[in-house]
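sry for the spam today, last one i promise. C-alpha cells for design, 203 residues
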C-alpha cells in the first residue's frame, strides 16, 4: 500500500520552487491570524513552524523578534527555508524533535491537512508535549469531512494526501489533548480553512 506521508513528501520535493512562488503572499485572513498568533507569544520566545515549507511564515515570525525553527519532511522545502535565514531541520510534524515543554509557541499552517486522520490524536498530544504550560498553538488546516489522494495540477503521476477535518471534531480532539481554544474561525478561499488559536493547559 502506498504510504501517504512519503508520497506527499516526494511531491513537495518536486514542486518546492513553484509552490514557494505561488504561496508567497498569504490572503488577508491568514495574515491577520498570523499576527494574532505572534502577539500571543512572548517577545523573543522560541517557536516552531511545523510543516514550514519554504519558510514564508517562519521568516515573518523571525522578523518579529521570535526565535524560530522550521520543521519539514521535504528536503527541498527545508533548503528554501534555510535560504531565507530560517533555521530548518528535517523532521515529521507528527513527532517534533524538541525537548518537552521547550516551546512558547507552535505554528502550523497548511500542514496538518497532510497528516492521515488516524494520526490526529497522537499528533496533537505530541504538540501539547512540546509546548510549555500556557504555550500558544496557531493552527490553520483544511476543513471538511473527506480524506484521500489529490493529483497535483499539471503534473500527472504525482499526488498528495489530504485529510479535511471536521471543525467540531478537531476542536474536541484539541480539548482532549489538553488545549484550551481561544478562538477559531473558517475562511473560504480555494479551500475552506479552519484556523484555531489555542493554549496548552495542564491535564
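last one done:
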Amino acid at each position: 500500500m502506498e504510504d501517504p506521508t512519503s508520497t506527499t513528501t516526494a511531491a513537495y520535493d518536486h514542486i518546492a520552487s513553484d509552490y514557494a512562488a505561488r504561496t508567497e503572499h498569504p490572503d488577508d485572513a491568514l495574515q491577520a491570524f498570523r499576527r494574532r498568533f505572534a502577539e500571543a507569544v512572548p517577545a523573543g520566545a522560541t517557536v516552531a513552524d511545523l510543516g514550514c515549507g519554504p519558510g514564508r511564515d517562519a521568516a515573518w515570525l523571525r522578523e518579529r523578534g521570535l526565535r524560530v525553527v522550521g520543521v519539514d519532511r521535504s528536503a527541498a522545502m527545508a533548503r528554501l527555508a534555510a535560504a531565507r535565514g530560517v533555521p530548518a531541520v528535517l523532521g515529521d510534524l507528527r513527532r517534533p524533535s524538541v525537548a518537552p515543554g521547550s516551546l512558547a509557541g507552535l505554528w502550523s499552517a497548511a500542514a496538518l491537512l497532510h497528516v492521515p486522520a488516524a494520526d490526529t490524536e497522537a499528533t496533537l498530544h505530541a504538540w501539547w508535549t512540546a509546548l510549555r504550560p500556557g504555550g500558544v498553538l496557531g493552527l490553520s488546516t483544511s476543513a471538511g469531512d473527506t480524506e484521500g489522494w489529490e493529483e497535483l495540477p499539471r503534473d500527472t503521476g504525482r499526488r498528495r494526501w489530504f485529510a479535511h477535518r471536521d471543525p467540531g471534531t478537531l476542536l474536541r480532539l484539541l480539548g482532549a489533548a489538553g488545549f484550551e481554544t481561544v478562538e477559531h474561525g473558517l475562511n473560504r478561499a480555494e479551500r475552506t480553512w479552519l484556523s484555531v488559536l489555542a493554549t496548552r493547559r495542564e491535564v
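The CA atoms of residues 157 and 165 lie 25 Å apart. ok im logging off now
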